[in-house]
Amino acid sequence: MAAADKPPVTGAGPFNDLLTWIDQRFPLMETWRKHLSEYYAPKNFNFWYYFGSLALFVLVIQIVTGIFLTMNYKPDAAQAFASVEYIMREVPWGWWIRYMHSTGASFFFICVYLHMFRALLYGSYRKPRELLWIFGMLVFVCLMAEAFFGYLLPWGQMSYWGAQVIVNLFDAIPVIGPKLAIWIRGDYVVSDATLNRFFAYHVIAVPLALLALVVAHLLALHEVGSNNPDGVEIKKVKDPKTGRPLDGIPFHPYYTVKDTFGVVVFLVVFSIVVFFAPEAGGYFLEHNNFIPADPLKTPLHIAPVWYFTPYYSILRATTENFMWVLAAGVVAMAGLIIWSVKSTAARICVAALAAVLLAGFFTLDPKVWGVVLMGTSVMIFFFLPWLDQSPVKSIRYKGPITKTAIALFVIAFFVLGYLGTQTVTEERTLAAQIGTAVYFLFFFLMPWYSKMDKCRPEPARIGSK
Amino acid sequence: MSDSSKPNSARRNLVIASACAGGAAAVGTAVPFVASMLPSERAEALGAPVEADISLLAPGEMTIFEWRGQPVWVVRRTKEMLDEIKKADSKVADPKSERKKSELTPEYARNEFRSIKPEYLVVVGICTHLGCSPQAKFKPGPEAFESDWAGGFYCPCHGSLFDLAGRVYKNKPAPDNLRVPPYTYLSDTRILIGEDKKGA
């Protein structure tokens, strides 16, 4: 639309002229309408819908506090630990800024996990929201990278040995692994070179990618529209005159007000942690990280921060004995797929893939498969839109099998998460192996149980029967 | 342009060719960036051998030296400890140190005790699983991680166990025995870690 054709901005009182001037040179009102005042969101958003906007809010906290932390932090192996203590003890309000940042990291994951769980409950990844879900998963992967790189920076014992373990995961890759690990560290062990580059990743590389992906996530959301607890498409029933969804309400002011309320409650909880329990009993800031990094001595007990522990448990559960369980699982899966698909080519492919996996299980070290399993446990989420074959989206209309499966998955996730914080014993390893099996069965069997489950029909409109 | 509905194939080929040339240039430009992340000459030079004095080491004790930024353990093993090693043969995954020989076990350490002199064990104290440094648990007896523990090393990260010769226990996350670094005796009480007689 040419500038001259645009109607002048109204309703902004003394700012009408200024906004008109801007609007004729920039798509101000168009953007405002498209994404806020005329973005129609379903009218039945509940508690679970707070966590998307809260995650965005935590991102802002992390960026702002992060900028101020870099003003005093020194990414140098000889000075890093001391510079963090300097921030904590001598920089005016430095302790507050740092505790906001460290607590923010954990709250970021709390929000994102609850946000993802919401998608799982209401099928928010289903068509047409597959790409929206993929962008969200990429945000999650970036967030994990950001948290991992950031955790090295205080240069405490947990920082050091955590990075040592995770970088050594790449060492397990056959052929190129050892070279790759050296390239990532920039040295033969985690050292000053590693700290320096992780700083670069943490403060600029990953945040840029994260921001770009968040924008893509929001644009994809506003293209397809929000899902809702009933899992029905509000765009199907529109007011014939205005073309607006009858079950939708404008995001602004209705949900901006709701989300602002969420932010207020969030800040109350967040502040309680920041001011009264910033270490959260060793879960948000681990005790061993108050000891400077010592390359010659691993702490008595090392564990990642809580948000990585489920995957860490899966890594530890993969021992030599467990390879038999994996092999049995692969054979059973291959049988199930071959029985389900009709095409001969697909059957041959599945059989060949299973044979390759089986050969690999007993030729490569279990360590390699531990890493593969850990990677798969995160990556498998990307495939949810295609694994879920249920005729309905929302858990409200799904049957008992899906409800049981989700409940078992949540239990397995928490059990694995708890075990990841603990030392290894035979019983715990067994528990972690059972948890790992449940975790993967939830995903791998989904195409079958979601299809055979007895679902109730979805209503035509929100709130109708 | 004579016919605007049909693409001009000469132009299209030129566009493809220049896109390929540009792509090749972009890949070429990435090389220096990727290479800049490799260890510098200075970092590589820090891998010099270390001289270790073991004259004060009492029987049954362990001391740690730093070589290439990694801990190297020297354990002075008693007669009982050596007996325990013999007994552990059935429990360890690779009793004769046959896996990845050239990388993990120099020729002079390819024996039951994985050392030049049975009395002194010299190994890199980094778990072959994911690089943690295991802990010395020399006292035999029941432990949380093993009911019938014969003494050795326990990795706190993922529960791998090693006997007093640095050999890994079966069915543990670590795939291999602890690495024996190249080393040589300069005298009865001094060893050189990082270099052996062949100049490795």
Describe the structure in your own words.
The complex is a heterodimer of chains A (465) and B (200). With 465 residues, chain A is an all-alpha fold. Chain A has two domains: 38-282, Up-down Bundle (Cytochrome Bc1 Complex, Chain C); 303-385 and 393-465, no CATH class. Helices cover 64% and strands 1% of the residues of chain A. Chain A has helices at residues 16-23, 28-37, 51-70, 80-89, 94-122, 130-152, 157-171, 177-185, 192-224, 251-276, 309-317, 322-340, 344-363, 366-379, 384-387, 400-421, 426-444, 446-452; strands at 40-42, 248-250. A two-stranded antiparallel ribbon of chain A has the order 1-2. Chain A is globular, with a radius of gyration of 25 Å. The model of chain A has no long low-confidence stretch (mean pLDDT 94). Chain B has two domains: 1-38; 45-193, 3-layer Sandwich (Rieske Iron-sulfur Protein). In chain B, the strands form three sheets. In chain B, strands 1-9-8 form a three-stranded antiparallel sheet, with no helix packed on it. A three-stranded antiparallel sheet of chain B has the order 2-3-4, with no helix packed on it. A three-stranded antiparallel sheet of chain B has the order 5-6-7, with no helix packed on it. In chain B, 22% of the residues lie in helices and 18% in strands. Chain B has helices spanning 9-35, 41-45, 79-87, 101-104; strands spanning 50-53, 62-67, 70-76, 120-124, 135-137, 152-154, 161-162, 183-185, 190-193. Chain B starts with 8 loop residues before the first helix and ends in a 7-residue tail after the last strand. Chain B is elongated, with a radius of gyration of 26 Å. With 200 residues, chain B is α+β, with helices and mostly antiparallel strands. The interface between A and B is large, with 41 and 35 residues.
Set out the fold topology.
The complex is a heterodimer of chains A (465) and B (200).
Chain A lengths: L15 H8 L4 H10 L2 E3 L8 H20 L9 H10 L4 H29 L7 H23 L4 H15 L5 H9 L6 H33 L23 E3 H26 L32 H9 L4 H19 L3 H20 L2 H14 L4 H4 L12 H22 L4 H19 L1 H7 L13
Antiparallel strand pairs in A: 1-2
Chain B lengths: L8 H27 L5 H5 L4 E4 L8 E6 L2 E7 L2 H9 L13 H4 L15 E5 L10 E3 L14 E3 L6 E2 L20 E3 L4 E4 L7
Antiparallel strand pairs in B: 1-9, 2-3, 3-4, 5-6, 6-7, 8-9
